[in-house]
Automatic annotation (TrEMBL):
Keywords: Signal, Transport. This is Glutamate transport system substrate-binding protein. Pfam families: SBP_bac_3. Belongs to the bacterial solute-binding protein 3 family. It comes from the Bacteria. PANTHER family: ABC TRANSPORTER GLUTAMINE-BINDING PROTEIN GLNH, AMINO ACID ABC TRANSPORTER PERMEASE. PROSITE patterns: PROKAR_LIPOPROTEIN, TAT. Residues 1-22 form the signal peptide.
Amino acid sequence: MPRTRLRILATAVLLAVTAALTGCSSSDDTAPAAARADLPDGSPTLERIVKAGELVVGTPDDMPGFNLLDPITGKYTGFEADLAAELAEHILGAPKVKHVAITTDTREALIVNNTVDAVLSTYQITAARLERINFAGPDLLLGTGIVARKDFEMATVTALPQLAKVRVITTAGAAADILKAEVPGAELVVFDSAVACVRALEDGRGDVFVNNEATAIAVLAEHKNLKIVPNTLPDASFGIGVSKSDPVFTKFVNDFLTAAIADGTWKKLWEKNVTPITGEPAPKPPVVGDLGLE
């Protein structure tokens, strides 16, 4: 056989082998996900995820430590962002996640109309929300976060009524509802977003910003002129919002969370994302199935 034909044949074989190896690479982000063969039947949400080849999650994009979008890379980082990727891999065999921006006002609607498969947004479990959606989890147990300027002096808060003595900034939703009920004499200043609350605090339009502990951690990560006021207030349960009409998916996510806690994944994700901000080790994980409403 002429040398030219030998070279052509060898080159063709090399290209074919290279293409085959490339197509099998597990690191190829464009490769289609292969869903698990043992997914439970009867879940419209799982069927939708498998058909789309991705898990669609509603998340904020401005929560350091939990859900933060890098505008340059387009990638999300944080505890719940990583947890969503783990859930997608648990379903599809690959961390295929599509993030949809949400607000406190749109979360339930996006779940009910199936725009998203789940919401991971440090989402507090309340009886009112359970009337419209289900919660898997809890995936987090969080205390109350009380943020103040570093020059503001305040003793450890042991009960919410102590906040009646100061001007309290908070966000609309569960935080404002709880404060109105528990601290009827408080001077509340309510905004639609944590960003607006922090700006008001820095401008002196209030003495403390009160929200959940995750929000306080996120604020502390980016505002070194602020501090967290110590408190001994009880924890609240936060979960993954899912469709009320798909109990099979709720159980599936609960089983996933139980396994993630048991095998150390939950602890690993916390210490990767939150510990660098707080300097504290991972807390005791929640008990999946105990929604904390009794």
